[in-house]
Amino acid sequence: MSKSLNKDSRMECSRHGVKPPAFICKHLQYGVGIGFYEPEYETDPECPFKNAWCAECESFAIEHGGWNDVSDSFAKVMPICEGCYEEIKQRNT
Ligand SMILES: [Zn+2]
Ligand SMILES: [Zn+2]
User: Fold this and answer.
1) Which among 75, 40, 77, 73 is positioned nearest to 85, based on CA atoms?
2) Once rounded to an integer, what is the mean pLDDT over residues 24-36?
3) Which of 23, 36, 65, 83 is least surrounded, with the fewest CB atoms within 10 Å of its CB?
């Protein structure tokens, strides 16, 4: 993730305009109905962005002792805009 990211960070989406960023695993980007998991804990107020991963990443993380370098490199989390995030959520839930 970008080091310059802070709570006021915005990104420009070609479809939704300027939006806060959100983060998804690489599988969700083009996935359909592959599961949609969000963190259960409260988001960090300094980094209040939505993030989600698919069912495959969820079981991978469980098998590998939670979220660490191994599961992170499997998920290859990528930034997208919040508008795209909502669409992806609808498509994969
Ligand atoms: Zn995934
Ligand atoms: Zn978008």
Assistant:
1) 77
2) 98
3) 65
